[in-house]
Design brief:
The chain is mainly α and about 210 residues long. It is built from 8 helices and no strands. The longest helix is centred in the middle third of the chain and has 42 residues.
Length: about 210
């Protein structure tokens, strides 16, 4: 029954997240296009002053919209998943939810798993969209490669120093540890809101 509950939740929540991800990627592509035109000498030299200013304006607007969307998508994801849980369990929609042939533990577990799934996908979309924009900047990408090279050399030459500093002997291990910590922290936040809603309903009935 957990599988059916997960399937229902994915269908229900994807109506918001899929269009949001598409808009995010479109903004990233537009930002990439206009900033690419703005930084290409061949275009700048051949374009008129008016068209050059127009491209510069569009580049600035697209980057501002992208940055606003970047912040909004994280806030929207967190708030929507919390509100969705509240509406599915404690409002009129909760009557239909509670009539499903699944236990309370399964209902809560399915919503926690869906919340983590969309939170992970949101992070992936944000990272990918950011890569779309910054990958055109050769200096930035070169700096990132140099940073990873330095980390790789540090891991090969001084594994003990890394272990003393972060508790693991490899950079990859530290990254995995950090990701696991963030997942557990996010799960804790979702559960804290779920428990708060439950206690609030009990106090209202008391």
């Amino acid at each position: 029954m957990l599988g059916k509950s997960l399937k229902h939740e994915i269908i229900s929540t994807s109506r918001l997240f899929i269009p949001t991800y598409i808009v995010m990627l479109i903004l990233a592509l537009l930002g990439r296009l206009f900033t690419w035109l703005e930084t290409r000498k061949a275009y700048v030299n051949s374009a008129t002053d008016a068209s050059s200013k127009m491209v510069h304006s569009f580049a600035n607007i697209s980057m501002i919209l992208y940055m606003v969307a970047l912040v909004a998508i994280f806030i929207m994801t967190f708030l929507f998943l919390i509100i969705h849980f509240y509406q599915d369990v404690f409002t009129d929609r909760g009557y239909l939810t509670m009539t499903l042939p699944v236990g309370t533990n399964t209902l809560v577990l399915s919503r926690i798993l869906i919340a983590m799934l969309w939170s992970l996908l949101t992070s992936v979309i944000v990272i990918f969209s950011a890569y779309i924009i910054v990958s055109q900047y050769d200096e930035f990408m070169s700096s990132m490669k140099d940073m990873f090279k330095v980390l790789g050399d540090l891991q090969d030459n001084n594994p003990e120093m890394i272990k003393q500093s972060v508790g693991v002997s490899s950079v990859a291990g530290y990254v995995c540890e950090l990701v696991l910590y963030l997942v557990l922290l996010l799960t804790k936040w979702y559960l804290a809101f779920y428990v708060s809603f439950a206690f609030g309903q009990l106090m209202m009935k008391a």
